[in-house]
Design goal:
- Strand 8 and strand 9 form a beta hairpin.
- The N terminus and C terminus are likely disordered.
- The strands form three sheets. A seven-stranded antiparallel beta sheet has the order 1-11-6-13-4-3-2.
- About 35% of the residues lie in helices and about 15% in strands.
- With about 350 residues, it is an alpha+beta fold.
- The two termini are about 20 Å apart.
- It catalyses: an N(6)-methyladenosine in mRNA + 2-oxoglutarate + O2 = an adenosine in mRNA + formaldehyde + succinate + CO2.
- It is found in: Nucleus speckle.
- One of its GO terms (biological process) is mRNA export from nucleus.
Amino acid sequence: MAASGYSDLREKLKSMTPHRDEERDKYVDGASNGSGKARKRKFRESDDDDCEHSDDSTELREQEARRVRSSIQQRSIFTPEECALIEEKIDDVVAQGEAGLYREHTVDRAPLRNKYFFGEGYTYGSQLEKRGPGQERLYRKGEVDEIPSWVHELVIKRLVSSGVIPEGFVNSAVINDYQPGGCIVSHVDPLHIFARPIVSVSFFSDSALCFGCRFQFKPIRVSEPVFVLPVRRGSVTVLSGYAADDITHCIRPQDIKQRRAVIILRKTRPDAPRVNSDSPLSSSPAERPAPLKAKRSHRKADPDAAHRPRVLEMDKEENRHPSASRDRRHSISSENYWRRGQDSDKHRESSGRKVKMRRH
């Protein structure tokens, strides 16, 4: 398989919209059986997507963009010196995560984007037993590490003193660490999990937050945003109202040209549902993962790295055994495939061979 710079992201995004592959397989099977109608239907479906986007009038999009902008507050609070100090602390978090010093659910690794949960963590995307909005669940208390003291001292206290958030508001802090070409698909922060507002602070480089995009795959492409919000290093972005609840937001791959990190500060709702104690996602709070192999320095990330071919062990295995590896890759989400060891073990038993996969 000739992997492009976004090959992992395709698998990650595909796992979040499995219905697309089902529809694609249905049409391809029909075409292979000699049905010209199936192929024609596939073409028309693609045309419908384009028409739906083109039918949005400029006036309506401008009205929606104004509603988005009116429900966003943005301020430049942190100086370059303060940013540099906080970025050193973020590097320490990355190092501790790679050394296996955090609890299992604190660190969530994905291609070109790592996520670190503190205070409260939750299931999302491919981790969900049932897909769809409203299915997200908080982990049990103690299954992620506490919010680091430096986040309180250097970030939260500064936001409180600046009047951005009230004292005691934050009980969940997430650090998203993006490499060049990384992204996060369009979503709304779960309404049943988090109170509003949603507060984020950007570090390392400038980027953009896009609203109202739609992701498509093979190749990955993103529709024209309804509204694009530049996010500068050291800037604080506060989402509430329409921007937080009534339209999706995302980070596009093309907007991450250099390493970028964002600290997201939120408050969980007191009635937010949690993962059941008998769920396979639950584990002992004291359980920690094995140390991970050292990765290349984040500070030396090449801006062009996202556009270079990346060949994974699983790709090499697919070239050696195309049919068996294809079944395996469809059964395991690329976003958190190493967390689903049970599925992997079942596959090994049924196929009689072992597949070596590298963590990313």
